[in-house]
Amino acid sequence: MSAPGQATGEQSGAHTQPVPDSPGTRSVGAASRLDAVGGEGQGGRGRLRAAAGTGTVGSGGGLSAGRRGLWSRLDLYGSPYLFIAPFFVLFTAFGLFPLVYTAWVSLRAWDLTGDAGFVGLDNYSRLLADPDFWNALVNTLGLFVLATVPQLLLALIVAALLNRPIRALLLFRLGVLAPIVTSVAAVAIVFGQLYGRDTGLVNGILGLIGIDPIDWQASRTSSWIAVASMVNWRWTGYNALIYLAAIQAIPRDLYEAAQIDGAGAIRQFRSITVPLIRPALIFTVVMSTIGGMQLFTEPLLFGQGDVSGGSLRQFQTIAMYMFEQSFQNFDYGYGSAIAWMIFLLTVIVGVANALIGRRLRGGTQ
Amino acid sequence: MSSARWSGWSARLGSGFRARSVVAAGAAVALLVAAGCGGSDEAGGASDGTVTLTVKTFGQFGYEDLIKQYESSHPGIKIKQDSIAQLDDYTPKLQQWLTAGSGAGDIVALEEGILVKLMAKPDQFANLLDYGAGELKGNFLDWKWKQALTADGTKLVGLGTDVGAQGMCYRTDLFAKAGLPTDRAKVGELWPTWDAYLATGKRFVAAGTGASFFDTAGGIYQNILMQQGDTTYFDRDNKLIVDTNPGVRKAWDQTVSMIDAGLSGKLQMWGPAWNAGFKKGTFATIPCPAWMLGIIKEQAGAENAGKWDVARVPGEGAVRGGSFLAVPAQSKHPKEAAELAKFLTSPEGQTAAFKAKNNFPSSPQAIDDPAVSGAVNAYFNNAPVGKIFGQSAKSLKPVYLGPENQLVGDAVGDALTAIEQGKLKPEEAWTKALTDSKRAVDK
């Protein structure tokens, strides 16, 4: 979505428009209120001030009391909508419209030669009977578990360690961020080399302890492990920082009290830290869910750009299957149906996570 | 342009490392479909009577000089060339232009795999036979001409540009180590047929050089398949015949016997190990279309100059892909556009494109032009590549592909990879390939 700063700028620009039409109607109080609100956008501030000044000079202009009342009511009740409008305009253009349009396309037979008309729910019934779709679904869920559970547990441990007084603390805290700022393509190239069949470092190390070289791409388990390790490496630090921020917001005296009561470090972690950062935990779980359901780049690049995800589709995720159908087979209708299934899947898993989160809350408090 | 993309399952392997498409893939399907609804001003007619023709291409067609030449000999015609670097980015845009009814300009380049799909709806393009293209038939290889002609022979959708004419590249040092001849004529004599290629491969492996005989079974299979003639996965009524066509089964069986004999390096095309293999000599032969010579030179590096050479392919000729120029029905100036397309695909135009960007011509006259037939490649021991590729392109018999060719090709190619990876036995893989093909086509 758009950056907040950009939205604010447009907001204040849009807001100035009603002002010239209402000279004299705006009270000083209203103007300064607007000024305070619009102050975040640099351009808008000066213009509002100028408009307010003009209004003062020309006050007592020939507007009827009724019209004046209408304007101030509009200003009072209408302008907040103008302020929030940019987000909704952008969301409609780039969020809602594609969503609805995808739904519309998913009801049609549409391929490279053009739109062949309405087919109802055919694409969806075909999808439910498509073993490749279910295979991609299993892969996505499997990779989600493999890539999320260790990642969040590890992030929690890393956050707890980073919260302790250690040497070069800032270096470590910044260090965990390094994987996120690394280009995902670079990550995939490096991991692709590490997991190389003939000359990969991982196979080299396994060879030292007497394990035969593994063709990482060939089987489902090995390819899942490889892809999950890429995702874990990339996102553990990000989640650790979120946890760290949440941990630092916990009042120190809780720990002091626990210490006096004789609780050790692990007990403190389990009984104070984890319950108190639950909002952060839920946030990371939701974000990981969204990311996990849409997993695409890592498995794609692991397979050297092969959207079918291996010879037997052993690591093809549902997003890759959507891409394959839409942009390789040019079956846009079917691809759109898959896109909607990804959306539904994300909602289902997200709701499940929220329910589990609520239960956890009930359980511990 | 055949560069890096061909029809059949190899198109997928040709995808290479596509960081850009990967980023683009983050966008929703609909966003990309919807984005095509915009269109620029296509009228192209100015008040002074100048006609502006827009030519849409991908990759490098080598038309810059030809366009200048045409503009100076045709006052009143202005030509704008829009080129998109990657075919992967070009194809969805082309689809959008055709669906939206605007944006395609006056001439579009069609890669072979796309052309066979679009042949299902020839009405999206001007019939070039209406613009006097019929008399140019002799300017094109027979099979190339027929690819863009509808089954009833009444509509011509496109005129051929280049073909991915193919030779067999091999490592002279590995051949010498294995006690095989290194001279390209003698090497060519080693494999008049694919059975002879298999026998040579067995000799090579037995010599124990540590290298495999070829890189991956997929390329070999595709090559054998295209030599079976007439049809592959579909008959001319677009009925799926992958299970009954003896040619397909023959190509499959021959490829499987090569895997069984341990000739395959089981490398993934475009993967890091494959790329490094050219330099390290991990495989001794690879079927190479004209454009791959540049890739081999780049990957193997200057220190290996002269170690790679080019011989003829086993069997009768080989071609991987190629492209066409077509005039979209939405063009406002179909007559002028057709004239320009005729000029660009003429033997002279194709020779010029070969000189500019090494796109191998699909016109027999251009193939016989000294500039093409006399071309040698210094990196490959001065191999007479023009002659080798020319013979390859000319001796190939026409093959009908069918609009869904690539879907089936992907299924068969994946099944072959599964055999190489030891995941499926050949008969299981064959059954799977047939099941997957049927499912991909019946929708």
TrEMBL record, chain A:
Its main location: membrane. GO terms for cellular component: plasma membrane. GO terms for biological process: transmembrane transport. The chain crosses the membrane at residues 81-104, 141-162, 174-195, 276-296, 332-356. It is found in: Cell membrane. It holds the Pfam family BPD_transp_1. Keywords: Cell membrane, Membrane, Transmembrane, Transmembrane helix, Transport. InterPro entries: ABC_transporter_permease, MetI-like, MetI-like_sf. The keyword Membrane applies. Residues 1-30 are annotated as: Disordered. It is a multi-pass membrane protein. The keyword Cell wall biogenesis/degradation does not apply. Residues 137-353 form the ABC transmembrane type-1 domain. PROSITE patterns: ABC_TM1. Belongs to the binding-protein-dependent transport system permease family. PANTHER family: ABC TRANSPORTER PERMEASE PROTEIN, INNER MEMBRANE ABC TRANSPORTER PERMEASE PROTEIN YCJO. This is Cellobiose transport system permease protein. It comes from Kribbella antiqua.
Automatic annotation (TrEMBL), chain B:
Gene3D superfamilies: Periplasmic binding protein-like II. PANTHER family: ARABINOSE-BINDING PROTEIN-RELATED, SUGAR BINDING SECRETED PROTEIN. This is Cellobiose transport system substrate-binding protein. InterPro entries: Bact_solute-bd_prot1, SBP. It comes from the Bacteria. It comes from Kribbella antiqua. Pfam families: SBP_bac_8.
